[in-house]
Amino acid sequence: MSEIKEAVRSRYAGAAKQLAVLSPDSNAGCCQVDGPDCGCAGSYSADELNQIGISDAVSLGCGNPTVLADLKPGEVVLDLGSGAGLDVLLSARRVSPGGHAYGLDMTDEMLELANRNREKAGLANVTFLQGSIEDVPLPDASVDVVISNCVINLAEDKSAVIKEAHRVLRPGGRLAVADMVELEPLSAAVKKRLDSWAGCISGTIPIEEYRAALIDAGFAEPEFEVHATQSLPGVGKVGSAYIRARKS
Cα(97)–Cα(157) distance, rounded to whole angstroms? Predict the structure, then answer.
């Protein structure tokens, strides 16, 4: 395991332990477990959260990809880097009846928490998988929608993640993710810091680089909508973006 992947794994293993003891009205922050908020609070419907019996305090994301995906009953959805399982559980309700929601995460502690949340929500059409988002353990053309919430920026090889998303999607399938992007160049020193990478800062890339990776993988019509920004004095500027694309 690379230094970057181990830094990410370690950070979110610790986050899972923190989330496991949060009160329902606590706020764990947005992607950056011990850092500043980056604009996702209030993006989840209170009614939907009540239906699955889970607070949005378990979200460490930078948005709500479930609102982008336009999920329909009968569809199969995959969440890359599913964490405590919030987006998977919300998706499972939306694709029911007949659909299924998969969550993929590499962290034992997060998977344990996600499965507890699944049991609490009482949803049968949910499967949490252990693995890497660069090597998805699902067959080609097996899902209708791929979502993700502030995770792709954490990967060393973002192109590999995007190509895997394209591989598992069926023709006409949709990519709908929330992710952090680099809006102004980050300092070279910050780019090398493992804690900043695990904190969703150092691993960000410019929108045009992200767009090029999507097109290179075979996605059509990529769209980017920046909905929150974060200026970091002496470091650079990042933002939370909603990203959509479709497999031809």
Answer: 35
Residue 21 has pLDDT above 80, yes or no: no
Range with the poorest average pLDDT among 36-40, 45-49, 139-143, 220-224: 36-40
Is the confidence at residue 32, as pLDDT, over 50? no
Helices (H), the chain: 3-19, 46-52, 86-95, 108-121, 158-168, 188-191, 194-198, 207-217
Strand partners, 146: 78, 175
d(CA 58, CA 109): 13
Q: Is the pTM of this model over 0.85?
A: yes
Backbone angles phi, psi at 142, to 5 degrees: -110, -5
User: Domain residue spans in the chain?
Assistant: 3-247
Dihedrals φ, ψ of 244, to 5°? -125, 145
Q: Which residues of 87-98 are buried (b: 16+ CB within 10 A; e: fewer)?
A: bbbbbbbbbbee
**190 in Cβ contact with 201 (< 8 Å):** yes
- CA dist 49 and 56 (Å) reads 7
3-247 maps to which CATH number?
3.40.50.150
| Count of beta carbons in the 10 Å neighbourhood of residue 209 | 14
Average pLDDT (169-195) is 94
